[in-house]
Batch of 2 targets.
Target 1
Amino acid sequence: MKRVREHEARAFERHAAAFAEEASKLGKRLKEEEDRIRCLEEEMTASRGDKEWFRLGTDYLVEHMKEEQARREEAVEKWKQLYLAIKTELDDLIQRTRQGERLYLGDEEGGTIERLQKEVKAKEETAETLRSRVGEMEKEACKRDREIDILRQSLRILSNKKRGRIGKNQLRDLH
């Protein structure tokens, strides 16, 4: 029974560490996307003369990015709290097991087994909740990536239209 508890404790620690690592990776990925968009914005500023239009587009992008960053930071903070709660609970469980807390046979056995079954069920529900949250976070990341791609394409289209108008106007002036 002691081995089973320790094995479960290690498994939960591994899962919690994996979730924390995933949250960290998502944060890094978001930072990279922000840097990449800033570079694109700088390139667009250098190649365009119409600053007002560009400012409107960048204001929207910056606002969108700040909202996304706030949501990400909130999710990361929740993951950290959840990870710490699980880790503390598992550490306590391991320590109680090592200190010699034993299961007693007899009348208490039924109650102890029921308590353990409830604990296992609660932890399984927690793990399932974590899995669903990870799935939701991945969906959000895909949506955000899609939105960023659409915005980039729109930006390219608008910049190409502006260039085309400028080129036609210059040709008319030559004739």
Note: The chain has one domain: 2-174.
Target 2
Amino acid sequence: MRLIISLFLLFQLIQLIQSMQVKQALNVFSRPLQLCCNNPKTGFFRDGFCNTNALDAGRHLVCVKVTNDFLKFSKQRGNDLITPIPEYNFPGLKHGDCWCLCVLRWKEAFEAGKAPYINLEATHIKTLEYVKLEDLMKYDISKLPQFQQSINIMNDSL
């Protein structure tokens, strides 16, 4: 009997999680959310996208390219993003990695002048509930020449 109840509860939990997942998430421009990163695999669901649902208490919404300066800042604030944590499927980050960052961590770094650049096309629209678009635009990675080069190289290889 316990097995049947356990299986029933597991099935209900799976249905609840699936119902909370966003089918077609949008970015801050109200267009389809783009892939943030597959290496390392990022996002609350570890699917490469900065998708969210009600279970994502941290709101992993902002697709960033981390810098050493930001990583040091985050560690000083009690959020060590450098050290791997395998049990959470977290590889640890290094300078240049892309990652779906918690929106309030990005906002805190922004206010301290330590915010990393953002891939706005891969940043979830719910970010706008916490940060103004004009502030996000100041850190738009697509305006950096190195980013444009990497996009051209990626497109050439497709």
Note: The first strand starts at residue 60 and ends at 65.
